[in-house]
Amino acid sequence: MGQRGRHGLGSQRPPRAQWRRRPISSPFSSRRPGTPEHPPADCKLSLQADSSPRPLLLAGYEDGSVALWDVSSRKVCSRVACHTEPVMGLDFDSQEARGVSGSAEKTLAVWSLDEQQALQVRGTHVLTNPGIADVKIRPDRRILATAGWDHRVRVFHWRTMKPLAVLAFHSATVHCVAFAADGLLATGSGDQRISVWSLYPCT
């Protein structure tokens, strides 16, 4: 397990972020597949711009399902039931065509996307405590991290889902996790702290 440290916000002006806007003809609504008249109360999204010639969107729904949307045609390509509780976070490995999702229950679900754009659950991993607020795969696709309601950040080997580390620093629910390009892991919690971790070296 690597070193940890808190990130302090000083008085220096933060770097300016640059965004590129892509115009669209009209808004896009990712209503729950199968019941267009009843949109979900909560929805987690992941845009997969590099996984297909046309933009695709992965959406995790309150009913525990994950759906793949074709943004251009505004149609659902595939849908799979992953959890029995609402999906709280998901991420996708476009090179391996595999994704992972976490929910309010005690499991992580690993699923795949085949050449016909069909989603299929490949396996589940049982956690110690229920409640995953966020999940992220590191850019080098070696490890992934989860943000837990139990105040813990858990690190797994992405290919095998073997548990590698439990990061115990926060005193409230961990709401989000994010990896930098150099492999540093940042975590944010309800305790009003951001922690930055140096973990296993990137390849």
Automatic annotation (TrEMBL):
Residues 24-33 have a biased composition (Low complexity). Residues 1-48 are annotated as: Disordered. Keywords: Repeat, WD repeat. Pfam families: WD40 (PF00400). The keyword Repeat applies. InterPro entries: WD40/YVTN_repeat-like_dom_sf, WD40_PAC1, WD40_repeat_dom_sf, WD40_rpt. WD repeats lie at residues 80-121, 167-203. It comes from the Eukaryota. PANTHER family: GUANINE NUCLEOTIDE-BINDING PROTEIN SUBUNIT BETA-LIKE PROTEIN 1, TRANSDUCIN BETA-LIKE 3. This is Uncharacterized protein.
